[in-house]
Structure formats: C-alpha cells, structure tokens
C-alpha cells in the first residue's frame, strides 16, 4: 500500500482539510437564493417615496400623481427589502419542467465521488445524476463529510462489486456518518491495461490500481506475472504513471482515463468476467419519502444480543412477512470494548461482536415492512434505517 499514499491527483480532489475549512461560498447550498439589488434600483425606490409624499400645487399635483402612479407600479415590483422589479432577478418557484430537468435528472447538483477524473466512480456519479457537477474527493470519508458540511449536495460511493464483493470501508462509514441512502446505481466496469505511449506489455513489471480493480482482474494479471501495487483509485494510478513517465509499470483503469492522461490501451476488458458490475449508493443529507409506485429497497443495520437462535429470529421477522432479503453483510462492532470480559460468556473475553447490514425488497411506506422492523426492534440492541430507495432497474 506504500505507493498508494504517493498517488495524489492533479485535479485537486477535495482533501480532508478542504472539507474541514469550507469557504463561505463553498459552504452555501446550491438551492439557497440570494437577493442582490442593484444600487441604482434602491436609489429609485427612495426618490419615488419622496415624490409621493411631497406634492402641493394642484397641476403639479396631478402630474405628480400620474407619475406617482406609474412609479408606484415600479415600486410594487420591488421586493420589501428593496429588491428589484426586474423579474429576471427574482427567485422563481420551481416548475415541473425544472424539477424534471434540473433536480430529478441531477443537473446543477454537486456530487462527490472518490478518486480523480476518469475514475469509475465519476462515471457512476454522472449516471446517477446526469449533468451534475462531479466533485473529486481524496477518500470515501472526505466524500461523506463534503455532503455533511454542505460543500456538495450528494455523494455517489461504491458499496459492492459483482466480482470483488463488498466495499467494507463504506459499510463502516455509513454507520459513522449520518447520511441517508436515497438511491442506487449499477455501473458496468470495463477495465483496460494502460501504459505510457510506445511501451509494450512485455516491458511491464508491475501494475498499479485500486485494490478492488486489481482483484477484479486477478486472472489476467497473474497470467502476465505482474506485481500488483495498490493505488487510491484506478484513474489516479493512470495519472501517476503518466506524470512520472513510468515505463515499467501499467495501470488498470478505464478507457476514459487513458484519454485524459494520454496513455495507450494495451488490453481491453481484462476483468475476470465480462459482466463486472459495481453497485454505487447515492447519499444525501435528507432521506427521500419512500413510495410504493415502483420497486423499492430498504437498507438497515442492527446488532443483537448473543444467544442461540437470535440471528435466526432476526431474519425470521422478514421471512414471516414474505419479505425478500437481498443482501446480508456483517461487520465488526468496533465500539464494543474489545477483550472485555463478558458475563454471559462465562467470563471469557469477547472479541467478536457484529453489526448486521441487511437490504430487503420492500419500501418503508409498506406496512408489512414497518411491522417487520417493529418486530425486529423488540429484541435488537440497535437498529437504524439507512435508507429506503428505488431499486436501480436500468439496463447496465
Ligand atoms: O478506482 C476507481 O475508479 C473507482 O471508482 C473505485 C472502485 C471501487 O472502489 O470499487 C469503483 C469501481 C470499480 O469497482 C473499481 C474501483
């Protein structure tokens, strides 16, 4: 992993320190509206008031009255705080068209992803929120914090891959942070072997990439006899090779990364299976209102007392109600005092306590799902709903 820390990106992804010190404008929500009143307009507002109050002579009065009327119309166009009558400057309520073109399809939404330009996560962010402004982050934790601190609106982060399995770090971070899962997006990951222009496969001794990507290409890399070197992300590996002109190292990355960093593609589709899909979670500060109009999925995390049949009982709350479980993942319950003696455990030290992450096929708007969770809550020592969101049914 030593090389991983060396790899930093030129496009300045958000670093932890950047997230900790947001500038005022950075910290503003995209949806916030600022009234900016041109100086000229404010002056006009004041002079109109003077005309209205100061009329005396009758002819002059009529003239002034009609002018006042005219001006009153202008005045009425001004907002109470001295805003402008220029309709272009006033905030407009969101229309249905805007909702579908600006919010729902994601345009103007800032979306954090881990990695540098050309990373698969960037493509996933753009698939999840078309026309979004994808914001690169150095690591997963930074992406979580960028949402929490209002620097971005959403984060799109990988949670599992069909070949490499779960991305455990993000399971742990889901619990440590307070974001909500508002959607998921599956992305077909097609890996390429990249190298400096003119370098041949036989010149390569090592290959740099994200550990997940290296694992997904295990067979090809073993066949080529290349030493694996872990990097922060696939595109970061490509960038590192390009910027250091490494002629004995290749990178496993996307064809987009090859284009961005000016590398040759020595081999395409080098993943172990042609169907290599990564599932990404869409995370937001607020949960969405779950519906029943289309297939929904709910993700929860819970912990249990130790004892025979307790896990069976927990899973039975779903089986009893015909709710399909899609995925179960267990992670160490780190907060437990490791090594502390547990009375229920005959005084022997208890090192292994777990959190269970479960995805089930139902919406939280469904009474059946609500009952299942009520039932689980009766004996779970901890329970949190991470999100109830539409299943990604898009063709990958
Ligand atoms: O390195 C990248 O390009 C990433 O987007 C990260 C990541 C991952 O974390 O799993 C995402 C998709 C691929 O499965 C490989 C790597």
Description:
This protein has 396 residues and is of the alpha/beta class. The chain has 3 domains: 1-28 and 104-286, 3-Layer(aba) Sandwich (D-Maltodextrin-Binding Protein, domain 2); 39-83, no CATH class; 288-390, ACT domain (Alpha-Beta Plaits, 2-Layer Sandwich), CATH 3.30.70.260. 33% of the residues lie in helices and 24% in strands. The chain is built from 14 helices and 15 strands. The strands form 3 sheets. Strands 1, 2, 3, 4, 5 and 11 form a 6-stranded mixed sheet that branches. It has a 5-stranded mixed sheet with strand order 8-7-9-6-10. Helix 3 packs antiparallel against helix 4 (58-76) and helix 13 (310-319) packs antiparallel against helix 14. The two termini are 32 Å apart. 35% of the residues are buried. Residues 1-11, 21-57, 67-107 and 337-342 have low confidence and may be disordered. Prephenic acid (PRE) binds next to helix 6, strand 3, helix 9 and helix 11. It catalyses: prephenate + H(+) = 3-phenylpyruvate + CO2 + H2O; L-arogenate + H(+) = L-phenylalanine + CO2 + H2O. Keywords: Amino-acid biosynthesis, Aromatic amino acid biosynthesis, Chloroplast, Lyase, Phenylalanine biosynthesis, Plastid, Transit peptide. Residues 25-34 have a biased composition (Polar residues). InterPro entries: ACT-like_dom_sf (IPR045865), ACT_dom (IPR002912), Preph_deHydtase (IPR001086), Preph_deHydtase_CS (IPR018528). It comes from Morella rubra.
Question: Which properties best describe this structure?
Answer:
elongated, D-Maltodextrin-Binding Protein, domain 2, 14 helices, Alpha-Beta Plaits, ACT-like_dom_sf, alpha/beta, binds prephenic acid, disordered N terminus, 396 residues, 6-stranded mixed sheet
